[in-house]
Amino acid sequence: RTRNVVASTTRPGRWTMRPPSFNEDVLKAWRTYFQKVTKEDIDNYLKKYCGSEEQKEEMIGVYEKYKGDFGKIQECVIGFEDVDELKDALDTLIAEGSLEKTKKYEMTTSEKKMNSYKRKAEKEAKEAENVQQESSDLVAMIQSRQKARGASFLDALEAKYSTPSASKRARRGAK
Description:
Layout: E1 5-7, E2 15-17, H1 22-33, H2 39-49, H3 53-65, H4 70-76, H5 83-96, H6 103-108, H7 111-161, H8 166-174
Antiparallel strand pairs: 1-2
Organism: Caenorhabditis japonica
InterPro entries: HTH_DNAJC9 (IPR056453), J_domain-containing_protein (IPR052594)
Domain DNAJC9 HTH: 49-114
């Protein structure tokens, strides 16, 4: 069990204990200013953001910052399902004249490079799925052990504090 230890402000070099409710109080105060972010909140934001002027401006800024390096651009831009969708959006901006096509962009969006980006994305998605599966297996294992431990604990208490059997009563009475 970990303990919340903080440096004392009254004496240098001395440690004082925080009350256990300290972290809960801090969390409550935090929640008064910032609400908890849910998956629904993220989905609603992405619905508003995708295709907006803000997204277009950010894409232009990232493109210019990395001089058209598609590998770096895809790491910074959000709201696209895959690399083809992002490339199409950038090509549209180039066709509109909002962006100037660079040598680096041409090199990093070749067919070979695009296939490489796709393979990398598939590999990362598979790894994320494995991690999620492992964590759900771990949660299930912990819960089953807690349930078993709780049952054995209750059995031990019952055995210890239940009324003694008739034979034990008879022996106590004989003494």
